[in-house]
Amino acid sequence: MIENLPIAEALDLMSSEAFLHSWGNGITVQDSLAVKRADADYPQLREHIRQHGIRTPVLIEVTDSGYRRLLEGHHRIAAAVDLGIETVPATTDERLYRHIDEMRWLLLSRDDLADDALEPLKAEAAAGLAVGLHDTTGWPLTEVWSREGFPLHYMVRHPSGRLMDVEGLHEERHVAIDFDWYANSSVTFTEVCRDEVLVRYREELDEPVPMALMPAVAAAVLRRHEVSRELPPVVTALELDR
Description:
By secondary structure, the protein is of the alpha+beta class. The protein has helices at residues 7-14, 17-23, 29-37, 42-52, 74-83, 94-102, 118-122, 126-137, 172-183, 194-204, 214-224, 237-241; strands spanning 3-6, 58-62, 68-72, 87-91, 141-146, 151-157, 163-165, 168-170, 187-191. The strands form 2 sheets. The protein has a 5-stranded antiparallel β-sheet, with helices on both faces. It has a 4-stranded mixed β-sheet with strand order 1-4-2-3.
């Protein structure tokens, strides 16, 4: 889970007794921020955050007694302070943190997908994206099946009747043609339960893109293709002739 942590609370974490002990000599938060700002790479990080926002959450440890302390993200907090950013993304899930840190290229900002993010969302992460699109829009989840009985792809069905994935809206017949080669036979389209897809994504596919990121990813996909969540887009005569 990722939360939006007010910058004042982030600074409180930095001033906690556990953090100060870890640095020794009881230095202040301002001392710590000054140390981070002095790093050679800090100006580049600050400029990147200015352009794209904070893409990797800070990591918070919660002790057995419920005490919270900041483990990673001090440079990001310093940049947030310098840039006047009011909240920073934060998580207490170390596995999720490591995963997101490895995939920080996924979102350039809250609105845009990085080009490198497209390939996994076309393939091994398509099921997770479909769940994210379903949760965001309420559109039915659709599984593309081979006649042999194994899933080929996951999409959502737009109110217009077309199917959507990371590459946009598609006529069903075009999807069938695209996947006919992989199936070595005709394909079928089946509406499927969200929980079933989610379990398969997490257990069988090992969640290649964290589901915690999917709301932002799904929103970025909708914006990328200018698809409304409520109303079907106008279908032109040219599209009907394809």
